[in-house]
């Protein structure tokens, strides 16, 4: 692989700083986690967005959260078709192998993927409709959400669609037999969150009132 | 979505603590990131494993890294077939929309996904061969790596396969026209890392010597 | 003391979060408790086990419970021999100095200390019989309990022994003259609880029926 | 055990509230902890004082901390004499059976036990000198600390003695061969903290400067 390049110096420097401090102060625990394996309490599905780090928000210890991050924190429906489904693989591993107690989907404000979906569905981004657009095809998962929000006042649609990304993921999660089974037996609980990145506010979906409410 | 449950109390408490400290102390920056959008310098592709948090290793600031996490930090080859490819969508967004300057793939020791691939390829895990196994099908991506390591001494194979997961991902990245183009024009560089989670050691692939060397 | 090390960063972060929220919201009360001293209503004796936090179960306010935690929530018999008795010191302080109104012993399921006692008494853990085994000598306190449960069906013995740990502690408490006196004068009441940690169920000893009953 | 009494109604009520909320929302995790056993990252030794709850300060999840609480957070020196040593048993279990990565001693301001030690050592509490005083004999462990602080200005002595309770405990911990061995091999780290309960401030002992410094 002749294209690999040396890591930029500022990252090398920070890594050495981390190893001399965080790793060094926690080495006993890192070693034990390495030897005994992880036993995370929860799986988190959140966005790749550089502004949303759930480890920071939840003061996560090493070993606490199994984290999958993709564009717009989306979960596709169950489709055991022999194709490659990275998100489904992560969920299968978390639920069946790690037996996590909670599965938490975290959406957020100003999501570029959700914006793209909105542009595509409202006809403003024909390039996303092409078969070759990976982002477009991925955001197809959120099309049912667009149908639910398109009649809202225009300035409410994006936030509503970001929250739909969380809800549709939770709905799709329940199409996985092993997820439905773990939820129904009480072995695992589902949680839907939405983070306002500017205000640092966290809301969670409350099925009793049918909407997201501040925590 | 009637299955959503309230967030466990200890996470609620930690979130409020985060908001009163980390968010509060950085609110000007969070707000600016919200208004102006993210402009991450690098995309990182790493594993979902709860023991590998690249934000910690690299002291990442909010807004610095666009992070995709999947099982075994794998990238599939370019396949514009109109299907859903979450990893490819994340790469496309990072390279074409965000124009990141670096694309860093981070593998690690004691990887459960890589272990599963090794078990599957060596005939010890027939259940992973089934079409319905999401983990099995996802780990198909690493089969070529197994071919390259299967004749090594047995106690070296797993680590070697973990490193192959990084190299094969880098190779597959170059099959994406927009990645190859950005690499060839010098707009983006590729990097392959492997983290020993117990020892906190980071190694990077050096094409001059054809192997991973400590940083 | 040259071996002291800095606190791991995730705990530093969580502490700052606590101070900015819980402490800050309760600072008037914390300050008053600091100035006027504690006046807890009850003493609780429970196990060190990380899965049993009575402050959580009883929604304890700061200042409410004086809590001693040791292996298997055991109380030794009164022995004023001039030696160091940490549990007896805690009881003496709670009863004579703080004049608590209730003394509550809380046992629990899956107790590692009780399991060790059972292994030792049934001949399966000879290493615990050695004079140098602190756990073994501490669990000697529960040997009389083993005699009472050893003829039960095998799958009932551990739970029965966990409950004996509570009952023997209550019996030993009554050998302390100041405890007996406070109980007899009505200044303090004794309570025996057992917590099923998996099911979150709490049972209390009811002398009328001579066994633990659900609360 | 005919002296056991029913739990006061307000505690019954709070327990039911806890079970309907905290337990219910976390039942999957509680059940898993029950089945698989605890794997706490750290042992904490803190005071019985009702005003110091480390689970609150550190936003502890169930299963994170193995907690021993006694009067004045004291650790006696290693004494394998076949007698009952509750604190030593807890330490032995945490280090040898649970293999915790950190052992954290937490002292605090306004400590009644430390005040008693100071009164006793300065001749103001002759009743604590009696062989039958459990608190007096327990606080004998801190006499060496009194010698180190008795020449300080009078208004500094109590705080200094509270901090000595932490340091002497750390020193005594190192007399346990299994503690010394784990510390020297890097398998466990020691930490000394002191909490100002009124101000909610946390300080840690820094061996480089030879005193406690704010965190």
From TrEMBL, chains A, B, C, D:
Keyword Transport: no
UniProt protein name: Carbonic anhydrase
Cofactor(s) required, per the database record: Zn(2+)
Organism: Albidovulum inexpectatum
Superkingdom to which the source organism belongs: Bacteria
Catalytic function, reaction form: hydrogencarbonate + H(+) = CO2 + H2O
Molecular functions per Gene Ontology: carbonate dehydratase activity; zinc ion binding
Pfam families according to UniProt: Pro_CA
Entry's cofactor comment: Binds 1 zinc ion per subunit.
Cited function: Reversible hydration of carbon dioxide.
PANTHER family given in the database record: CARBONIC ANHYDRASE
Sites where the protein binds Zn(2+): 47, 49, 108, 111
A Gene Ontology BP annotation from the UniProt entry: carbon utilization
Keywords: Lyase, Metal-binding, Zinc
EC number(s) stated in the UniProt entry for this protein: 4.2.1.1
UniProt family annotation: Belongs to the beta-class carbonic anhydrase family.
């Amino acid at each position: 692989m002749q294209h690999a390049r040396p890591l930029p110096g500022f990252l090398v420097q920070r890594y050495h700083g981390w190893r001399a401090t965080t790793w060094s102060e926690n080495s006993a625990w890192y070693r034990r986690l390495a030897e005994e394996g992880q036993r995370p309490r929860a799986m988190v599905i959140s966005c790749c967005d550089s502004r949303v780090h759930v480890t920071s928000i939840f003061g996560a210890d090493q070993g606490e959260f199994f984290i999958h991050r993709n564009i717009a924190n989306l979960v596709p429906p169950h489709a055991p078709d022999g194709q490659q489904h990275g998100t489904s693989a992560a969920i299968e591993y978390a639920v069946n192998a790690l037996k996590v107690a909670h599965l938490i989907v975290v959406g957020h404000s100003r999501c570029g993927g959700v914006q793209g979906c909105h542009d595509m569905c409202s006809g403003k981004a024909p390039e996303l409709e092409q078969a070759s657009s990976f982002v477009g095809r991925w955001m197809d998962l959120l099309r049912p959400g667009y149908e639910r929000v398109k009649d809202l006042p225009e300035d409410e649609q994006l936030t509503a669609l970001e929250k739909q990304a969380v809800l549709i993921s939770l709905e799709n999660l329940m199409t996985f037999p092993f997820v439905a089974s773990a939820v129904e037996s009480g072995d695992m609980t589902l949680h839907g969150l939405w983070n306002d990145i500017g205000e640092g506010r966290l809301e969670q979906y409350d099925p009793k009132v049918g909407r997201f409410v501040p925590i």
